[in-house]
Amino acid sequence: MSLSLFSLLPAKKPGLSVFLILACLLLHTAAWAQKPDRQERLSRLENAKIAFLTDKLTLTQDQAQRFWPLYNEFTDKRRDLNRRQRQLRTSDPEGLTDQQIKDNLTQAFAMRQQEVTLEKEYFEKFQKVLSIRQVGRLYLAEREFTREVLHRLDERRGGPRSGDVAAPR
After folding, report:
1. Buried b (16+ CB within 10 A) or exposed e, 25-60
2. Residue-by-residue DSSP string for 51-109
3. Which long-range contacts (CB under 8 A, 24 or more apart) does 105-111 make?
4. Is a pLDDT exceeding 50 seen at residue 83?
5. Running DSSP on this structure, what letter comes out for residue 2?
């Protein structure tokens, strides 16, 4: 992670920070319209998320240096668990034996428990770097960022926006 990104987000100037985040998201959306390769899109999305979370958490330089390696470690572990959970899913459960279905469900429950354990573990670790209010804002900001990305994808695809109600026929 480049620390120069953190210096762009002064906690004392929230208007500028919001502008920078919106600019990143707009650039990100424009970049997706040009269809760059998947890795480049993911990198841009990750940079937008870093800027978004840094602003929402009002991280100091010191906190950012300690927080991001920890958060990246947490995200990698969470992503691995999610990948393993997806591998257990099947679109044709009828093609499995009863024992295979039972084993898959048992493994899925175990992985969900691992995910809760992971969340608790990093909740404790985050508190060593952030204030409890910042930790609370982290979880809210993650959901907010995801909603914003999904909203922008819906807009690009011309789909209904979240919260929009379709007109009755």
Report:
1. beebbebbeeeeeeeeeeebbebbbbbbbbbbbbbe
2. HHHHHHHT--HHHHHHHHHHHHHHHHHHHHHHHHHHHH--S-GGGS-HHHHHHHHHHHH
3. 111/81, 111/84, 111/85
4. yes
5. -
Highest mean pLDDT among 60-64, 72-76, 89-93, 160-164: 72-76
Structure tokens at 52: 């978004």
Strand, helix or coil at 167?
Answer: coil
Task: State which H helix or E strand residue 120 sits in.
Answer: helix 98-127
DSSP state of 162: T
Q: What is the DSSP letter of 9?
A: S
Q: Is 133 exposed, middle or buried (0-12, 13-18, 19+ CB in 10 A)?
A: exposed
pTM of the full structure: 0.67
**Nearest 5 degrees, angle CA 153-CA 155-CA 157?**
70
